[in-house]
Design a protein that fits this description.
alpha+beta, 5-stranded antiparallel beta sheet, 822 residues, zinc ion binding, 5-stranded mixed beta sheet, 20 helices
Length: 822
């Protein structure tokens, strides 16, 4: 490497040593300086490491390339390719082992002198050394030498050569290579293929060639300019990288016609590419006159069938030092560690840190990966923030079947923990809506029963005529207020809100009594006030103040109510308007907002978010006119559909598949348009028709299913042949019985079929009887039989089939989260 930039090599087996090659060979020893001071004469490589010079070898001038011997012994044997084409074996250590002492100084000489461009030791047979030379019209450019070969004197000439000035030693000049390849061509780069001892990949002048030493007369090649720096991925032996100018080509030896990938072209010519030996699919590249090393992380995503898609490339750049980089070398064992050398022989020890990827699971577990390490974030024992998180609450509620009790709807607030009063109010409202819907449908089918679920506004707007207001007297005050007349629709709305019971009675007394019994004094007082009974409101507040769990401040509120006056400019109205916002209880706040508001303007009541929605809706039914609202179809709102789909996806992410399926069933009963279309069906191999569809459409003309191969009771009958073409269905690979499907949904059966009381859901067969098959080998059978087989076996049950069916199913071993809960 005389007159060129220095190169650097890590020792393949001594992980603390490396060699710098330029006009001479310099061996360095790396040691940690974490707990020690820098020794005299050592070179600082990084904050944690330093290098000490062990030896220098200047006996091999005109160096062009160097390759370190891959075997353990001798430990410091190197092959040096020279400008005249000779390959010299030299050492950097004092190895006195007699077995290998004769190797030091041995030279391998080509027939015609020309430059040696590259050297490569065979990783399987460590005695084989491949050398790539420049072109000569009468000689080969790829020579493979056996460094331990025994030649007879009449075949191999012997002569004396001078190793250094003033010293002579008899050595063996080997001139007969083991193999000669690539005639009348130039070899610019070489690498052995690890999968076979006798496969050699060479970057020739205008093509990449794969030589098979078992048949040297033939070679497999592809024409390309990217012939420099060929190197094999140590983790994927069929993947090879090479470069030309500023472009890197990635090859797949199984599809050698063209590169599978071409990396982004760099503005300057490349000088080196190298795969990371400790990281899968990580390629480093270096360009001329640059202080940046580009990294390409190649990730393959295998499909379920086993084919591979085009690699996904993640590109990044690292800067190990400030000066230009002459060369670099990956450490053979330390993960993502490399050492770089500058043109003036300044060295730097550098570690490429992996990108940290975060993963937050649906059950609030936080994990992150860095390199080969996986970290998990754990909560402190005394930290209750996780219990307060809404995602945790939603998951626990979904696990307890929250929202799926459609018979006793009000019980859903108990499934949610019975801690949220707003949820309790919501589910009681839905419970009342369900009750009134059923009653109305029973009395007069096709009436307003379905209108109940459309909402209070739609119910009020369904009135045939405009509702007029009238003056009503207050109880306990000499005052009148405008209240809307209660027609049938507004009475239904108040019943749905829970203020009045079913029937013609519109008295809120029973509702007030129930609130008092539950200790909701403030709410009861507000409802009484909204019904123009200020005397009852004061009475309720006094009862609450005198109760054991009541608040003594309620007496003060009752006293303030008793001083109510209707004068607009009174001091009472002014003080209540100012001080009501300081009250903690929202119902006390809206009581004074109602008393101090102008007629028809009740924003202080309607927009108090802490007051139950059904109480505000009931208030609106009594005091707002028809023109102050507009109906809205909530189910068709895009936001509602977005919420529903996200909740379904969330249940799937939690692996609550049974809960999500139950949710879909209940939803489809209430909204038939939401029922999804069939995504999978079983078709006949002969006629191609869906078996279940043909079963429901074929005319039976009074004949039983036994004519189609059906036997047994009607509820457990099976169609063992296609109802469309009557050809037999496939047989189960284990029990060898024809596959079948339940026929409970098929009309037109015998009289005995008509007497059978099938369930209203028309349930399908048990899962054990379902059709199941492998998408790869197409073999299958009953689901129960196949699951039982693969509990004890890995391969397909069909003879001579070696398909590992269950291993191709990435979700086959997943268990619903409901089944593993403590």
């Amino acid at each position: 490497m005389s007159g060129t930039k220095p190169d650097i090599l890590w020792a393949p087996h001594q992980v603390d040593r490396f060699v710098v090659c330029d006009s001479e060979l310099s061996l360095y020893h790396v040691e940690s300086t974490v707990n020690s001071e820098l020794k005299a004469g050592s070179l600082r490589l990084s904050e944690d490491s330093a290098a000490t010079l062990l030896s220098i070898n200047s006996d091999t001038p005109y160096m062009k390339c160097v390759a370190w011997y891959l075997n353990y012994d001798p430990e410091c044997l190197l092959a040096v390719g020279q400008a005249n084409g000779r390959v010299v074996l030299t050492s950097l250590g004092q190895d006195h082992n007699s077995k290998f002492k004769d190797l030091i100084g041995k030279e391998f000489v080509p027939k015609h002198a020309r430059q040696c461009n590259t050297l490569a030791w065979n990783p399987l047979d460590s005695n084989w050394l491949a050398a790539g030379l420049d072109k000569h019209r009468a000689d080969f450019s790829v020579l493979i030498w056996d460094i331990c070969s025994k030649y007879t004197p009449d075949i191999v000439p012997m002569e004396k050569v001078k190793l250094s000035a003033g010293e002579t030693e008899t050595t063996l000049l080997v001139t007969k290579p083991l193999y000669e390849l690539g005639q009348n061509d130039a070899c610019l780069s070489l690498c052995w293929l690890p999968r076979d001892q006798k496969l050699l990949l060479a970057g020739m002048h205008r093509n990449l060639a794969i030589f098979d030493l078992r048949n040297t007369s033939q070679k497999m090649f592809v024409n390309t300019k990217a012939v420099q720096g060929v190197t094999v991925d140590p983790y994927f032996h069929d993947r090879v990288a090479s470069f030309y100018e500023g472009q890197v080509a990635i090859w797949d030896l199984r599809k050698f016609e063209k590169p599978v990938l071409t990396l982004t072209e760099q503005p300057k010519p490349l000088t080196k590419v190298a795969w990371c030996p400790t990281r899968t699919g990580l390629l480093a590249t270096l360009t001329r006159d640059s202080n940046i090393i580009r990294l390409y992380d190649m990730q393959h995503t295998p499909t379920p069938i086993g084919d591979e898609t085009e690699p996904t490339i993640i590109e990044r750049s690292v800067q190990p030092c400030d000066n230009y980089i002459a060369s670099f070398a990956w450490h053979p064992t330390s993960q993502n560690r490399m050492i770089v050398v500058t043109p003036n022989r300044t060295m730097s020890d550098f570690t490429v840190f992996e990108r940290i990827s975060l993963a937050w699971s649906p059950i609030t577990s936080l994990m992150w990966a860095c390199g080969r390490h996986l970290y998990e974030c754990t909560e402190e024992e005394n930290d209750n923030s996780l219990e307060k998180d809404i995602a945790t609450k939603m998951r626990l509620r979904a696990l307890s079947r929250y929202g799926l009790d459609t018979e006793q709807v009000w019980r859903n607030h108990i499934l949610a923990g019975n801690e949220d009063p707003q949820l309790k109010s919501l589910w009681y409202t839905l419970h009342f809506m369900k009750q009134y819907t059923e009653d109305m449908d029973q009395k007069s089918p096709g009436n307003k029963g379905s209108l109940v679920y459309a909402g209070i506004k739609s119910i009020v707007k369904s009135s045939l005529g405009m509702v007029e207001s009238s003056r009503h007297n207050w109880s306990g005050l000499d005052k009148q207020s405008d209240i809307q007349n209660l027609n049938e629709e507004r009475i239904l709305a108040l019943q749905l809100c829970g203020w009045i019971k079913k029937g013609t009675d519109v008295d809120v007394g029973p509702f007030l009594n129930s609130l008092v019994q539950e200790g909701e004094w403030e709410r009861a007082a507000a409802v009484a006030l909204f019904n123009l009974d200020i005397r009852r409101a004061i009475q309720i507040l006094n009862e609450g103040a005198s109760s054991e769990k009541g608040d003594l401040n309620l007496n003060v509120v009752a006293m303030a109510l008793s001083g109510y006056t209707d004068e607009k400019n009174s001091l009472w109205r002014e003080m209540c308007s100012t001080l009501r916002l300081q009250l903690n209880n929202p119902y006390l706040c809206v009581m004074f907002a109602f008393l101090t508001s102008e007629t028809g303007s009740y924003d202080g009541v309607l927009y108090e978010n802490k007051v139950a929605v059904r109480d505000r809706v009931a208030f609106a039914c009594k005091f707002l006119s028809d023109t102050q609202g507009s109906p809205l179809d909530v189910l068709k709102d895009e936001r509602v559909q977005y919420w529903i789909e996200n909740y379904r996806n969330l249940l799937d992410a939690w692996r609550f598949w049974h809960k999500r399926a139950e949710f879909d069933i209940h939803r489809s009963k209430l909204d038939p348009s939401s029922k999804p279309l069939a995504q999978v069906f079983v078709s006949c191999n002969f006629c191609g028709k869906s078996i279940s569809y043909s079963c429901s459409t074929v005319p039976h003309q009074g004949r039983g299913f036994s004519q189609y191969g059906v036997s047994g009771s009607p509820t457990k009958s099976k169609v063992t042949s296609c109802p469309g073409c009557r050809k037999p269905l496939p047989r189960c690979a284990l029990c060898l019985i024809n596959m079948g499907t339940p026929v409970s949904s098929c009309p037109g059966g015998t009289k005995s079929d008509e007497k059978v009381d099938l369930s209203k859901d028309k349930k399908l067969a048990q899962f054990n009887n379902w059709f199941t098959w492998c998408h790869n080998c197409r073999h299958g059978g009953h689901a129960g039989h196949m699951l039982s087989w693969f509990r004890d076996h890995a391969e397909c049950p069909v003879s001579a089939c070696t398909c590992k069916c269950m291993q191709l199913d990435t979700t086959g071993n997943l268990v619903p989260a409901e089944a593993v809960q403590p």
